[in-house]
Amino acid sequence: MGDHPTFAGPRTFLQMPATLPDGSPPEVTVVGIPFDLGTTNRAGARFGPSAIRDASLMLVDGDHPEMGIDPSRALKAVDAGDLSIVNGYLEETLDLIEKQVEGIDNHLVTMGGDHTVTLPILRAQAKRHGKGISLVHFDAHVDTWKDNFGAPIGHGTPFHYASDEGLIDPKRSVQIGIRSPTDRDIMSYTTDELGFTVISAEQVHLDGVMKVIETIQETVGDNIAYLTFDIDGIDPSQAPGTGTPEVGGLFTWQALAILKRLGGINWIGMDMVEVAPAYDHAQITAFAAATFMWTYMCLLAQKNGEAG
Amino acid sequence: MGDHPTFAGPRTFLQMPATLPDGSPPEVTVVGIPFDLGTTNRAGARFGPSAIRDASLMLVDGDHPEMGIDPSRALKAVDAGDLSIVNGYLEETLDLIEKQVEGIDNHLVTMGGDHTVTLPILRAQAKRHGKGISLVHFDAHVDTWKDNFGAPIGHGTPFHYASDEGLIDPKRSVQIGIRSPTDRDIMSYTTDELGFTVISAEQVHLDGVMKVIETIQETVGDNIAYLTFDIDGIDPSQAPGTGTPEVGGLFTWQALAILKRLGGINWIGMDMVEVAPAYDHAQITAFAAATFMWTYMCLLAQKNGEAG
Amino acid sequence: MGDHPTFAGPRTFLQMPATLPDGSPPEVTVVGIPFDLGTTNRAGARFGPSAIRDASLMLVDGDHPEMGIDPSRALKAVDAGDLSIVNGYLEETLDLIEKQVEGIDNHLVTMGGDHTVTLPILRAQAKRHGKGISLVHFDAHVDTWKDNFGAPIGHGTPFHYASDEGLIDPKRSVQIGIRSPTDRDIMSYTTDELGFTVISAEQVHLDGVMKVIETIQETVGDNIAYLTFDIDGIDPSQAPGTGTPEVGGLFTWQALAILKRLGGINWIGMDMVEVAPAYDHAQITAFAAATFMWTYMCLLAQKNGEAG
Amino acid sequence: MGDHPTFAGPRTFLQMPATLPDGSPPEVTVVGIPFDLGTTNRAGARFGPSAIRDASLMLVDGDHPEMGIDPSRALKAVDAGDLSIVNGYLEETLDLIEKQVEGIDNHLVTMGGDHTVTLPILRAQAKRHGKGISLVHFDAHVDTWKDNFGAPIGHGTPFHYASDEGLIDPKRSVQIGIRSPTDRDIMSYTTDELGFTVISAEQVHLDGVMKVIETIQETVGDNIAYLTFDIDGIDPSQAPGTGTPEVGGLFTWQALAILKRLGGINWIGMDMVEVAPAYDHAQITAFAAATFMWTYMCLLAQKNGEAG
Amino acid sequence: MGDHPTFAGPRTFLQMPATLPDGSPPEVTVVGIPFDLGTTNRAGARFGPSAIRDASLMLVDGDHPEMGIDPSRALKAVDAGDLSIVNGYLEETLDLIEKQVEGIDNHLVTMGGDHTVTLPILRAQAKRHGKGISLVHFDAHVDTWKDNFGAPIGHGTPFHYASDEGLIDPKRSVQIGIRSPTDRDIMSYTTDELGFTVISAEQVHLDGVMKVIETIQETVGDNIAYLTFDIDGIDPSQAPGTGTPEVGGLFTWQALAILKRLGGINWIGMDMVEVAPAYDHAQITAFAAATFMWTYMCLLAQKNGEAG
Amino acid sequence: MGDHPTFAGPRTFLQMPATLPDGSPPEVTVVGIPFDLGTTNRAGARFGPSAIRDASLMLVDGDHPEMGIDPSRALKAVDAGDLSIVNGYLEETLDLIEKQVEGIDNHLVTMGGDHTVTLPILRAQAKRHGKGISLVHFDAHVDTWKDNFGAPIGHGTPFHYASDEGLIDPKRSVQIGIRSPTDRDIMSYTTDELGFTVISAEQVHLDGVMKVIETIQETVGDNIAYLTFDIDGIDPSQAPGTGTPEVGGLFTWQALAILKRLGGINWIGMDMVEVAPAYDHAQITAFAAATFMWTYMCLLAQKNGEAG
């Protein structure tokens, strides 16, 4: 065991420093985006980054038990703190997020915030890596709505705009865990028109995780890929701390079993969104979110040649 | 998306009106029964109807993602409010419930209240549709006890009386999710004497949902059938907001996967009972209950010829 | 007692109808504003109206024990539901609120929502009643900041703008319960430059409620007056369900003792803001908010000649 | 300090035994009544006795700091467990309570249960001690309603029946903390017709506890007196764990300051009612209830000549 | 049903007496150990015994629905209360526990307390039954660390010492549910050096419970075996009330399905540890813990020839 | 307002840095001690420092409204993080704390941890400032017990040892808020033998804060003084998040009114102990604790000549 227990010490993600001690540039940057103006039901994802950081302390000081990797040791990684936002102003904040993300020139892992933040992140990622990114998208919702209860932008619209702007390539993208009420028009727009591969939560339960992994790998292929993980993809019993929960969701073991087998994907970034701690209980949602991020970082470390 | 977010507007079930705008008779009536005098452990199901109504707002304005139906648009349905009760008086309330249910001459969907309320509902349903109704019964408990800790009636006794009075036909009825401590006498009375088909929660987990669906369909056949859904059939992790939880229960995805495939059953009514919001967390129990009711209404709409 | 218990029946404010049964125009209109984009710390006031309505059921069916008035019987009052908002868009929503309030031509009582909503309400009230309104303002915060963490408008800025636009007359206005950290510049702007009479929470505790009542009456005089009640004026122990609590606050008994003695004021409207139910416990914040509104309506009924 | 910490050992009230070790008859018997069928809003007082017993462990092993008495050492007292009830049946339970209380021939201290239980206790006490008992009654509600939302008996009716049957003498009885909505008819029935001395919560706050003590002593005089303590007399911030809270209530320090100075009263029994743990937080309501009972037992010990 | 509801009566485990009424020696003794000084993250397991006892009331008065056994009737069993501890002193308490356990000469079932307590229990069990005990160990953690954040002993170290002292035979022991971050050195020490059979939570999910049962039976064989059940083996959604939760865990149905099929094992004792009620919700963790203990006692009763 | 909202940015106390940007030595050092092995009832104060830091974000960026001081701007102050502890080992940790405190040569403000930590702090302070320190001690408990349920040291014993070792001068020390059960022997030891001035919570309520201030000033005089603030001095309604709450406590407004008037005292250090977030609600306990520390730092800044 390490030298101090999990309830002590700095409360950054995995207790990573803000800058590397030797002044070298990091390989991975973790940032928080304390923002929830795009939520349509329960707000509170502004406190998501703090909650995930606190939960991550349970993951400090130990290797992934099966992958044999401790990502905070295996990677040159920093927790660079929170991005600035424009309090109360949605579109202005999205612009500001985009600008800040553009300034980060290494592998970015983001803690939201609501799902609206993925749009400016993808805009910045597309500038850096090129358009047509594959999306691996865990969520209860397709998030391809064309409006947000009459307003143009919200947490249900990012992938409509990202598709529309060509940032992502829906035909090489997969959505996993989908199960919310959705107008058949939107569903058909998502699958037929845009071309997303949609795997419902029920399909994951009935078909098993190995089949899902295969579908993801086949759909994404060797395209550059971005992981966007809306915590409400997970069942409300395991992730109550979120704004728009839907019953019948994925179990954390399924998401972890899928994620840890996606090392072959050509990842360019990740976000973990919609953690709303006011609705969490005993930190279980935040633990789940932190564990998904930690597992993703293990994948990155594997790439770096870290033995498992 | 609709024209106002889920945290605004009227708080009836699916925001349905109390009467149809055009004055026509409804096809489906939803009512609440704020009653919990029959509970044997934790009270509080009197607040079940309010909690389910609030949770149902998340289901307004969208089709079932796989069935392609929005039941509040597909059906002429109303939320007629709460039935009257006699505060503090169990048997008097049961009589009053029966009388009120008799006055509703369309398809009735009830939000309990504790499970005691199913007895007067079945009495009224049997008057209207005839005796020998098939019960499709999700529950952790068989609810065929012959007494309630010494008193004659409680939430553990409805199906003893319903069998005894011939309201239901146990031989064509199925109980799913059973797992509570139960004297072997009561268990043998239930299965051997009365003839219920009992599917334990463990069996659902081990055999899979497809097998359960088959058993239900075979047992019920083309008899008229009533769905009584005690939320404690679901695991306490997904439905903590109830009075007599038992661990090892069904998952919501299983119940939903079963339910949505029971469109062929000849349904005459449904109740959703034992939601006790004081023990819920982040509304997850209420979301589950509302989603089961919503799915049941999709089945009714399917019957009406609504395309999916 | 009435004919059904407090856990049954419609969940509007005091179970008041949306329109009067006889079609006559109401004397008092209650509306909700499910909005919280202006909050600077914990969001969630969007659910304030629902929570206050539910809590108000405890006040149905009974006279104020000392004033001898039941305002829902003594006044022709309606709960007209929730105002529309533009989800995610702050300034657009404020404009929309203003327009909707302009359309209500009787005595308006509003359930927020965060404190930002008072600005458009005052704009509409000033159009109808004239500028230079006296504010009677319960709050932990002066809410006269000139910006919202760099952005122009938020829940800390309404009375800067309301003063600036002449909507209110700070010199005939009182703030009660003030105690948050506040830059000395803002404090001196509030008291010296604008001329607000500021009564700190400590002063209420040390000087007693009778002295506070006297100061309010002297400051407001016979001017038209608007009551804006931020629930965080109350101590966090009695009103935890709010976004920016400050310890050392007023007790509900003090606020009630003050309020019920302000019948002589020339009231033109009221709002009850910043109730954030996700942080409430056992509904106590919502009960407090509902009781303040109920007491205010008793004052209105007294004016109408209702004997106490 | 004692020999084991407060989180260990038996969980009876003050860890008192069920019978005295030497087989001698007790001076004081504490019993629980796990009953809440009479509640009109939130149920759950059935768990009150358990919660109070657990909270009382903090009071084991120590003298009252000002009275210098440890009642569990100073008195021969037992916790005789819970009375039997008829689950689900209100009137039958009241009869059964009465019969059981009649069988206890020493000083009885009861943990409710809702306030309905005081009626059968008073019936039994009047048989033993004579009618015309003085009531010292802490409560937010007068509890003299003549019906319970249409039904004859509930937790709002005990003192109507107790007055009607002559069990208590309202003219020598005091109600402290009253503040709920109450029809003026009921209020006038209570004070003018029956003759109760009613001290509102606001009066306690404005006049101070010494004045209240004086009024109680003057009103009760040397009559036999029964203490009935509804925990909702206390403010919801200090006693959220109850069914019908009303804001603006007494503080625990006030109730304790009053109670500990009432040693001169001729007490014949006490009940502590309406503790509903499902709505409590961090046991604070239960701690308050246990402390009131503990203080009452100190009064009894003082009578016994125990030095302070 | 029995003669009183689950919310009444004594609150010992399964309402068992402290000594048998006929004075005969018990076959099974249940004790609590209110101790949590060994925890490395969230404390609070000191309240575990109380919480489990309360939860067990739901299991009183009924047979296991599939095994047909009510263990409190089938076995001569007592709840002997809580062991003494030395408040604040870890090693002194372990010694005291060992001494007390040595004094119990029948089948011991323990409610912890944190996992540190298993070490002194195993020391006492090895004195009585001999060394080289097989461990059947449900847990998220291997608990074979050689230190506790620098200190020698804590809740992560018991099986290092138990192996080192020869109390257990790791080569005939199984760990089920393992999934926490663990340095590869510790993992290889556990499996390769000590020889534990480790079944990860993911393996249980992917391989199914029947395979797990087989592995346990093969590994343990006919050796004497001790069941140590750390509640954090279960997923945090079903057991939030614990100190070091890890997502992706076992479901209660899986643990129950495994446990009830292990009747052939030669059991010598059990402990149920790490239940921390402050983090529980609606008692679900405590219900799980009580149900595991109840099921274990059914296994013991089966051995005794009790028919199912 | 500042440049980012309270839900963003670093989570140190008042967002103070770990070292001053210009490398100069600080005037004030804040540290956390994540330790709770000395608690006798509910554990969890190990998370106190994190909770207080989070709550302090609400106090960043603003002057004390009456004192006109922002202590994080007025003082050269740092948050130096958490002291090391020996996990699970009480006496070893106390020694380690003492050693670490000795290494801090400026004004120390500590966030506990349970009250045991005050003993090693006082030992270090006495080495630096001399023995015979005056204690200004807010608490529900005298904390002069000579043992901890049989063990030598715990959170009820620090001032027995501190007196015994001459670290503090009880005759020039004051305890405020005392009200827990306390054996008359201990009470008389505290007041008569040691000579503490004890002001009960009731006295504060009855006599008023001005009288308390006077008593403190007279008792302490110009002696060096240490402020030890046990959050359970505050009433459980305002500070539920603590281990050994006692009803009838001080209100935060009283403690603040007292504290802010103690600028004339010759302060040498402060600790804020016994904040146990697992029992807190909506952060209200942590807000109180942070506000007391913030106010104390305002006193220090006043000394420094900072104008108000």
Explained architecture:
6 copies of one chain form a homohexamer. The first copy, chain A, is of the alpha/beta class and 308 residues long. Chain A is 33% helix and 15% strand. Chain A is built from 10 helices and 8 strands. An 8-stranded parallel sheet of chain A has the order 2-1-3-8-7-4-5-6, sandwiched between helices. In chain A, α6 (184-194) links the parallel β5 and β6 (197-200). In chain A, α3 (90-102) runs parallel beside α4 (118-129) and α4 (118-129) packs parallel to α5 (158-164). The longest helix of chain A has 20 residues, at 284-303. The radius of gyration of chain A is 18 Å and the shape is globular. Chain D binds chain E through residues 3-5, 7-11, 32, 34, 46-47, 50, 54, 81-82, 84-85, 87, and chain E through 3-5, 7-11, 32, 34, 46-47, 50, 54, 81-82, 84-85, 87.
Q: How are the strands ordered across the major sheet of chain A?
A: 2-1-3-8-7-4-5-6
Tally of distinct domains of chain A:
1
Helix content of chain A: 25-40%
Largest sheet of chain A: 8 strands, parallel
CATH topology of chain A: Arginase, Chain A
Shape of chain A: globular
Q: End-to-end distance of chain A, in Å?
A: 19 Å
Number of strands of chain A: 8
Given helix and strand content, the structural type of chain A is alpha/beta
Low-confidence stretches of chain A: none
Q: Residue-averaged pLDDT of chain A, rounded?
A: 96
- Tell me what the CATH architecture of chain A is: 3-Layer(aba) Sandwich
CATH superfamily of chain A, please? Ureohydrolase domain
Radius of gyration of chain A over alpha carbons? Answer: 18 Å
Oligomer: homohexamer
β-strand amount of chain A: 5-15%
